[in-house]
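From the shared-data thread, chain only:
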Amino acid sequence: MTLPLCRPATATVITLSFIGGLRTFELIWATTKGGPGFSSDLIGSVIYKQYRAGFYGLSTAGNVVLFLLISILVVPLTWFLNRREGHQ
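Structure, as tokens:
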């Protein structure tokens, strides 16, 4: 098996791992709950804190921002990983 045959599977794994990394929430919340202060807050923990405080519109807007951020970063990454040598 050669690397060109593995390229689509590798591109998919890299893309999904990148998206998973941007959505990290559970480990940070379980260990520090975003503290001390706001030193380990991520977008996911800020959205969750806003939702728990009853700011449903703000947490929904945060989810939209997270979606747009992931989309803006993943589309060029996917394009780069799926391009072929000599065919552009």
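The chain has four helices and no strands.
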